[in-house]
Amino acid sequence: MAVGRQLFSHTTQALVYYYKQLPIQNMLDFDFLCGRETPSVAAIINPAGAGGFHNLFFGQHQILIPLYSSAATSSKLALTQATIRIVAIIADGIPESDLMELIDYAKSNNKIVIGPATIGAIKAGAFKIGDTGGTIDNIIQFKLYRPGSIGFVSNSGGMANELYHMIARVTDGIHEGITIGGDAFPICMISDHVLRFNNIYQVKMIVVVVEAVQSLVEVLTSGKINKPVCVLWINNVRLFKSGDQFNISQGDESSCGQLEALKDAGAIVSSSYETFEVSIKQTFNKLTEEGKIVPIIKEVTPPQIPEDLTTAMKSGKVRVPTRIVSTISDERGVDVQYAGVPLCVMLEKGMGIGDVISLLWFKRSLPHYCTKFMEICIILCADHGPCVSGAHNSIVTSRAGKDLVSCLVSGLLTIGPRFGGAVDDAARYFKDAYDRNLSPYEFVEGMKKKGIRVPGIGHRIKRGDNRDKRVELLQQFGYTNFPSTKYMDYAVKVETYTLSKANNLVMNIDGAIATLFLDLLAGSGLFSKQEIDEIVSIGYLNGLFVLARSIGLIGHTLDQKRLKQPLYRHPWEDVLYACHVK
Ligand code: ACO
Ligand code: LMR
Fold it and tell me: 257-266, 285-294, 343-352: lowest mean pLDDT where?
């Protein structure tokens, strides 16, 4: 063991083997309390997982700690790393043969092993490894966020925290605390650390809780220890009035000789937990009176560790605005609810996709003629053959070998003002023209003057003498089922005017859906004027075409995948090469 060497400093960093969030966060919170500028955890070795980073707090800020899937895959391998001086083995139950090998290797390579079966070690105000010191509240209560004058070493981690508390009560606190671990074969002995503490200038007295005293007696009689050593020999004392709290067996008569040897070696030996506190206090006060310990004049106030939001919320200390507000569905219960209607109720009532749209888009149940109208729109717009731009893109993308979603999205991306995406604009312009009482002439010519094509009018192939059957089907449904079709009636008049100008200016499916939807909103009596204006302004209705045409685009994609057509390449004769045109 390196005699007289501080094990840790305020820049010491650890590699933590296996990712356990709480002890690692506890170490980082300790760093923050001590005012460290760099986190004490340099990396996490997680053999079971892949690389990457873990997101943890360093004070109020989040830091990313690198995760490595392989580094030192065992304590021994860790010891062979030149940059690793100390290995703390939290695990217990290590086979004796492996332990012997570790002990030999550590001693011959001047490495320090704490453990096995240790809860760790701490240099007050600088660095801690493992869970030693307990919670952050304990660490603050035991004043471990700044160094005192006491070197502490024990086998047991449970005793360590008790003693940190006791030492903080009756002295200026711990300088360094080590638990060598409760294993039968600790790799470093208590006596090693007593000797090391003796040669650390800042340590003025040593407190030891020990189970086997032999090696301690040896180091005390070696003449190398010149600082007071207060000892609590576990095997020989009654720990607590209420019986031993640490399940440690009481000593027997044969230990009396060892006890005498300990006293003869100069140890300040206590016979009970209570007298142990007294002897520590008396020893500390004596050193202070002798001027060997300079009392801490002004106690350091540690920074406040920000409380985790979850904890603070549970305690009611803080309230946090929600990041997302959803008013259409709630999946927290057993049964998902759409606008408050449980799925099971929807099935019991025989609701269809039109009802689902009513609930999730319009947040209310609509009468059957409304939901039926939406379902008809979906049926009529689901597909319009492989030649239209949407289907074309999905087909080409599929033949390029792309996945279903990419093919679908590729087709959907062609939906816009000139293909399938004119429903909302048609609703806006027709509603505005009707509400402002414009004649068809005023409306159409006004749009022409603005250079805007009347959305909902015109088609690549449909003509006045070859109308879009889908439009006629929607009109029939509206005329038969809607309380009012004033917007559609107006659109028909507009179409009459546009057809007088050109045969291709026929009402198209976008225009039919738009104006009948205006009739649905206005005629159902279920939407206020403000709501109707909002629906038209936000633009709900292109969604109906997108929803519908997704069915056809998926169909074309699947069709092409079945056909296994070669990569699509546009034929030269279909292209006008005009590279010479500047
Ligand atoms: N309003 C006014 N004039 C129009 C309109 C219209 N909606 N559509 C075409 N025209 C005029 C053009 O200005 C052009 O006149 P010009 O030669 O004096 O410039 C003439 O008609 C031919 O125009 P094209 O673009 O060649 O006609 P095309 O048949 O290619 O256009 C289209 C079809 C894209 C649908 C067009 O009518 C249009 O843009 N309409 C408005 C947007 C719309 O409703 N889109 C939805 C279509 S339906 C669907 O995709 C499911
Ligand atoms: C469609 O529904 O895709 C069509 O009306 C567009 C078109 O060009 O046929």
Answer: 257-266
State whether 488 and 398 are in the same domain.
yes
Query: Would the pLDDT of 171 be above 90?
Result: yes
* Selection from 160, 168, 169 nearest residue 132 by Cα: 160
State if residue 463 touches ligand 1 by the CB under 6 angstroms criterion: no
Answer yes or no: is 558 within a domain. Answer: yes
Residue nearest to atom 7 of ligand 2 (CA): 388
Is residue 385's pLDDT more than 60?
yes
The response to whether residue 504 sits with its C-beta less than 6 Å from ligand 1 reads: yes
Distance (Å, rounded) from C-alpha 432 to C-alpha 81? 78
- The rounded Å distance from CA 419 to ligand 2 centre is 7
Instruction: Give the atom of ligand 1 at the shortest distance from the alpha carbon of 545.
Output: 51
The residue nearest atom 3 of ligand 2, judged by CA position, is 384
* Any ligand 2 atom below 6 A from CB of 16: no
* Closest ligand by atom to 415 CA: 1
**Quick one: pLDDT at residue 156?**
79
Q: Within this chain, do residues 393 and 280 fall inside the same structural domain, yes or no?
A: no
Identify whether the C-beta of residue 521 lies closer than 8 Å to the C-beta of residue 367: no
Residue 150 alpha carbon to ligand 1 centre in Å: 89
- Domain total in the chain: 3
Q: Which of 378, 381, 384, 556 to mutate to test the pocket of ligand 2 (most atoms within 8 A of CB)?
A: 384
Distance CA 56, CA 23 (A): 11
The domain in which residue 219 lies consists of: 14-289
| Pair (405, 520) in one structural domain | yes
What is the distance between the alpha carbons of residues 373 and 356, in angstroms, rounded to a whole number?
13
> HSE on the CB side for 106, CA within 13 Å?
26
pLDDT of residue 257: 81
- Residue 506 Cα to ligand 1 midpoint, Å, equals 9
State mean pLDDT over 155-170.
Answer: 90
In a domain, 314, yes or no: no
Mean pLDDT of 346-362: 98
Together in a domain, 498 and 370: no
Task: Identify the band that residue 249 occupies on the pLDDT scale cut at 50, 70 and 90.
Answer: very low
Other CB atoms within 10 A of residue 326 CB: 8
